[in-house]
Specification:
- This protein is mainly α.
- It has one domain.
- Helix content is about 45%, strand content about 0%.
Length: about 80
Amino acid sequence: MRIVQTELTETEHALLEAYVRARRTTIKEAVREAIRTLTVRDQVDPDDPIFKMFPLTRAKGKLKNLSEEHDQYLYGDRR
């Protein structure tokens, strides 16, 4: 674990205290939640080929190496 410190104005601290009281949580947990909300991208890219490429392959039959080469089948040589 890392320790992160910051300074808050009296108004910011009062708002934070009111927030945690209303949610019955701690300042520590509220700050962690805020960091996760700001930094974790919880969205999908609608242009990702995995959402557009069905059927995945035109060939009939099973791909024997799909679990190893799935990125190649989905994205080709773009990487």
